[in-house]
Amino acid sequence: MSDNCALKTPDHETEGTLQIENPVMPFLRQDRIPHIWCPGCGIGTTVNCFTRALEESGLDLDQVAIVSGIGCTGRTAGYLNLDSFHTTHGRPIPFATGLKLANPRLKVVVYSGDGDLTAIGGNHFMHAARRNMDVMIVCVNNFTYGMTGGQVAPTTPIGATQTTMPYGNFENSFNLPFLADACGAVYVARWTVFHVKQLARAMKEGLLKKGFVFIEAMAPCPTLYSRRNRLGDGVDQVKYFKENSVIRNGAETKEVGLSFQGEIVVGKFIDRERPTWLDSMNAHFSQHFGDKYQTYGGTNG
Amino acid sequence: MKADPKGVLTGNHFIDGDHAACEGALAAGCRFVAGYPITPSTEVVERFAQRIPLIGGMFIQMEDEIASSIAILGAAWGGKKVMTVTSGPGLSLMMEHIGYAAMTETPCVIVDVQRGGPSTGLPTLPAQADMTQVKWGSHGDYEIIALCPNSPQECFDLMIKAFNLAEQYRVPVFFMMDEVVGHMTERVVIPAADTIEIAERRWSKKPPGEYKAYEATSDMVPDMVKAGDGYRIHITGLTHDERGYPSMNPPTQKKLLGRLLGKIRDQREKLIDVREEHLDDAEVVVVSFGITSRVTGPAIEEARKRGVKVGHLRLVIAWPFPDTVIRKLAQRVKAFVVPELNMGQMVLEVERTVAGKARVVSVPHAGGTVHEPQEILERILEAAK
Q1: What is the per-residue pLDDT across B131-142, written as a single tens digit (0 to 9) for each?
Q2: Over pLDDT 90: what percentage of chain A?
């Protein structure tokens, strides 16, 4: 983690005070800092990785839009210095779909939590992947509903305790990479906030990939998940990520399901090509209408 | 600004209200529709899907009405004029995004081809029973505009007005059709594109850095930009300040709500659109809207033949409700008769506005068909006594 948080070498000193600029700062709306996230929360680390990815992608940041839903991760849109949309609970993907199709030049990133994207927003997730809509999804998975106080999520492993599963969760949880793969995502990866380099690289690849990209970023929620399950604080959870993660690039997604404090398979699981929804539409209409049809969105669709 | 000729099918047509509504949207400059099939509205999106590829625009059938109702809002921030189309059950699913559109001041048109309810109700038969839902269905206080066409021709003409109002006021605008208006076929005249006046989006002229997403202009409506233009906007459904940043405290909430409501309430006189008939000597006034206004016509004719001084006030814009028009009439008429294809919704607004100064007679109908003129006539005669 340390070198991802590295600070730039100071350019100058003023009256003996060291002037240090965090390289992440230009990507943030500094007038909105401090953020709302708890000490030990992993969301900020994912945002740090995302800003690295933005920088390294070489994309024109005026052409990158970020869309979030509701929840702790849903607040990400509000902190990034991009065109940013904080939408309704579960609906960032259809909002992003409309935004992308209205202005295909944009690179549209959906940045939200596991509850937002896969419980209330699960239907939209499936269909955007099926269509291969050209949006990149960053799903910060902290296994719980943090904003509302730690309720059971579709990602909560069996055995973990949550306020609405006070005697321990008995519901089966989603294997998100398997879900994304089955629905047709062209890029599927999972990393934890311990794997900052790999996560940043996956995000960069995702930004440069056309089609439905799914990146699961496992993150601790010390306040409402770790504490309730007596798992220590944020650092303890990152230690768990470190000690129990196995990198298996290209692993079968059906075999990467998670269990309570069990093994975590991380890696890039899927990287394939499929025409996007918009490319398919343009190709189909060009064939059907011939010269009468003008490609929608120019060549940037 | 004049209509883009690419979207205007100039000529005389014999089409139903659903098809005419689609042509109205295309003429108005709508270039993005997201929808989900639902009777009796589906023909609107079917026609749009057929027409749009060669006009240059986008139709996408989403996975449900929730997705449709927010995909259009994303598309509006991508720069398009947008619409979705639905009926009762779909409208119920869209409610959260009505509030989001109102809160984020995202221009959009929502067509509701009304059918009998509640729940699945009467999918293929008419009602006017969503009138109060569109006004108050989403949580919190907000304002919307609702128009009520009563013919295929008006489905075309008023649709252009609906889009223009959405752009001008930056509120969700509802287009309140019903199954009969949607499916009745009549002559529809579509004029030349250069005679159709179109409201452009209120694009800000300020450069990035000076622009604030929710800074009020003189009419309280902020100017807009779109994603990708370098403004780095932040848009949220949370209570926000002029920059668009979340700011959750009572003073910001009060200021924001004051403006969101005020931009319609303070300009409601400009938003009056009523059609008046025989009001000069009227002692009884029938207040109607949409398809019911066409059934009211024969009832009024018959009543006048029988010597009853009855007039007709048709609400073309039902929301905001034309308080001042009704209040003025209430000073001099004996009674108001309010026929509607529901169990008494807009009559509540008439009663509120009349405030006891005249009698208010409701003519409810459970829906499934339209009133018999005789039913309305009887209530006119009773009210005139």
Answers
A1: 999 999 999 999
A2: 90
Sort out which chain A residues have CB atoms less than 8 A from B82's CB and list them: 98, 102
Contact A83/B53, CB-based, under 8 Å?
no
Please, are residues A36 and A217 in contact by the beta-carbon 8 Å criterion? no
Q: How many angstroms separate the CA atoms of A80 and B237, rounded? A: 17
Are both B184 and B285 inside the same structural domain? no
3-state secondary structure B196-209: CECCCCCECCCCCC
Give the pLDDT confidence of A54-76 residue by residue, as tens digits: 999 999 999 999 999 999 999 99
ipTM, interface predicted TM-score of the complex: 0.97
Is residue A181 a contact partner of residue A270, using CB atoms and an 8 Å limit?
A: yes
What pLDDT, on a 0 to 100 scale, did the predictor assign at position A14?
53
Taking only the tens place, the pLDDT of each residue in B172-207 is 999 999 999 999 999 999 999 999 999 999 999 999
A5 pLDDT more than 70: no
- Interface with chain A: mutation pick from B60, B61, B100, B211, highest number of A CBs within 10 Å: B60
Whether B228 and A105 lie within 8 Å, measured CB to CB: yes
Categorize the per-residue pLDDT at A10 as very low, low, confident or very high, splitting at 50, 70 and 90.
very low
Averaged pLDDT, A16-28: 83
Question: What is the residue type of B337?
Answer: V
Last residue of a domain, one of B161, B195, B229: B195
Residue B252 maps to a domain: no
Residues B101 and B14 in one domain: yes
Residue B30 main-chain phi, psi, to 5 deg? -65, 125
A84/B233 Cβ within 8 A = yes
Put simply, the answer to whether B70 touches A87 (Cβ < 8 Å) is: yes
Residues B166 and B292 in one domain: no
Measured CA to CA in angstroms, residue B38 lies from B4, B60, B70 at distances of: 29, 15, 17
pLDDT of A18: 73
Does a structural domain hold residue B86?
yes
Half-sphere exposure of B282 (CA within 13 A, CB side): 28
Q: From B97, which residue of chain A is nearest by alpha-carbon distance? A: A88
- The encoded tokens of residue B82 equal 């947008």
Chain B nearest C-alpha distance from A129 (Å)? 12
CATH number of the domain to which B317 belongs: 3.40.50.920
A65 to chain B: nearest residue by CA? B227
Residue ranges of the domains in chain A?
30-273
CA angle centred on B289, ends B287 and B290, rounded to 5°? 160
For residue A239, list its beta bridge partners: none
pLDDT in tens, B88-105: 999 999 999 999 999 999
For B236, the 3-state DSSP assignment is strand
Is residue B222 a part of any domain in this protein?
no
Among the candidates B195, B229, B248, a domain finishes at B195
* Count of positions (residues) in chain A: 301
Residue in the structure block whose two tokens are 């008419």: B126
Chain B residue with minimum CA distance to A77 = B234
Residue A78: which of B32, B54, B236 has the nearest Cβ?
A: B236
Judge if B288 and B168 occupy the same domain. no
Strand, helix or coil at A64?
strand
Q: Which pLDDT tens digit goes with each residue over A200-257?
A: 999 999 999 999 999 999 999 999 999 999 999 999 999 999 999 999 999 999 999 9
User: Of the CATH numbers 3.30.70.1290, 3.40.50.970, 3.40.50.920, 2.60.40.1120, which one belongs to the domain with range A30-273?
Assistant: 3.40.50.970
- With beta carbons under 8 A apart, name residues in chain A contacting B245: 29, 31-32, 78
Average pLDDT over residues B235-260: 98
B333 within a domain of the structure (yes/no): yes
Counting the structural domains of chain B, the total is: 2
Q: Which domain holds residue B178?
A: 5-195
Question: Domain of B126: which CATH number?
Answer: 3.40.50.970
Same domain, residue pair B188 and B309 = no
